[in-house]
Amino acid sequence: MTPYAALRTDILDAREQRQWELDQFLHAGHNTVLMLSLNYPGPQKLPTGCGALMAWAQEQIETGLGAMAVVQSCDAAGMYSLFVCDRDSVGCKHYGVETESAFAAARLLDIDVYGRWCGQLDRKKLGLPPRRCLLCDQAAVDCIRKGQHDQDAVVRAAQRYLHSFSR
Predict the structure, then answer these.
(1) Residues 93, 126: contact at Cβ < 8 Å?
(2) pLDDT tens track for 83-124
(3) Residue whose C-alpha is closest to residue 107's, from 119, 96, 121, 94
(4) Domain extents for the chain?
(5) Which CATH number fits domain 3-130: 2.60.40, 3.40.390, 3.30.70, 2.40.50?
(6) Nearest to 42 by CA among 144, 120, 163
(7) How far is Cα 26 from Cα 36, in angstroms, rounded to an integer?
């Protein structure tokens, strides 16, 4: 198995574990569960500066939404935190999108919101535009699926964004 194939397997396993943890909090009756993760491309999932960016985002979620962190961890896919909150899921998703757009490096954050009654809320369900690619003006998901850009160029762009963050 190539190193990238092994990494892909490890990341898929990590995502399954995250989903299991998320499901535990949703089934426990929490109104809203948020998952904060660093959406960093390439094999290096803990670049310099990611801890400070995640700490900033966690503070925004805790103070802005009154959410409580219930899981803080790191796995093959990188750093992530789970939060529970009694606030409205739709309002939490709008707040998450605003946080992801607060400044350049915040584009590397992914704040997923899950409601007890509505499941995962995404931008499309709320009539919001999709995330933009780090390198062009297209939807990031389309560029990723098509392999539109050289992986090294995407990683360099992410590094520039993260480097721009100072706390």
Answers:
(1) yes
(2) 999 999 999 999 999 999 999 999 999 999 999 888 899 999
(3) 96
(4) 3-130
(5) 3.30.70
(6) 144
(7) 15
